[in-house]
């Protein structure tokens, strides 16, 4: 079956983009945002393309080995964050990008935002749309709100028939995919990283082609995982920081498995071997993997969230969610410490609107709705704004 190919540090011509050179003169926020006036004299933009480079190595991490928590009860509802759940989030929706912490909400960016991810140093990387179906490459520009500015700037700008999609941000790198081509001979999707400090782009791997590509990409610790599709098949592919493919005991598909038409397929034996498929892989920086397990039960799929130790495969958490009338669909996640965000859309329709995400406490099994519609991510550090 067609799987993503590997491409290790091939030199590329990068997207044109504006580079923001800035000082961190921002007011740092812990529980609130304080505005302060600041001159813009240090902001410099340039239309020159970034140089290519190899990725900077990330420090080794230590895997979590806490015992598994299992529950099959229906999730609780309500805005539990407002009554004591300790989490600061960024949430993106049709109205903009927001900082949400309990009942405190602050708008960071106006206008429709598809995904917004804090850079961990007071800035915000965001994208208003990644919809290539609009046939407008400039609609897929990836933008940046520096910590010392009220005004966002274009960070990565496609050229020609290129379309960009923001995937993840961490350790000073912006991870995104670029698709181009319109026929089986020239269609190509590549996973790339952009260094916020060194302002360089590195083409990391080829992740798709004609009628194939990545649905979700997550970077955590020294590894990257792509949840990919190829026509009626899907699966997980893992990369080390060098761009080489790697395997892990914690991969639910194993070395030879993938999903085919909603069932588990074993490539080694060319047989359907189970009624489960796995979706939306999410890596943490400390060596854990979270994913959705969809298990066919009659005419419906049971929806289960699982967290495992990536290296050993030890199951750390499992919870089944009741979905009355299959009324919502689980989407991408974010895993940090003992908390897990599970984003949701109202239906399975293409580009269905995001509703309020679940926040799961992995230690207690408690589940809350964040009480604010949109695609959510953990803040990952203090947010600064002038």
Describe this protein's structure.
The chain is mostly beta strands. The protein has one domain: Neuraminidase, CATH 2.120.10. The chain contains no helices and 30 strands. It has strands at 27-29, 69-71, 88-93, 96-101, 104-110, 115-118, 124-127, 142-145, 153-156, 163-170, 173-180, 188-195, 201-208, 212-220, 223-230, 233-240, 245-246, 257-260, 263-266, 271-274, 276-283, 288-297, 300-309, 315-321, 329-336, 339-345, 354-361, 367-373, 375-378, 383-385. The strands form seven sheets. Strands 14, 15, 16, 17, 18, 19 and 20 form a seven-stranded antiparallel β-sheet that branches. A five-stranded mixed β-sheet has the order 2-24-23-22-21, with no helix packed on it. A hairpin with a 2-residue loop joins strand 3 and strand 4. It starts with 26 loop residues before the first strand and ends with a strand.
* Total tally of structural domains: 1
Largest sheet: 7 strands, antiparallel
- Topology, number of strands: 30
Low-pLDDT residue intervals, each spanning 5 or more residues: 1-85
Note the main attributes of this structure:
single chain; 386 residues; mainly beta; Neuraminidase; 30 strands; globular
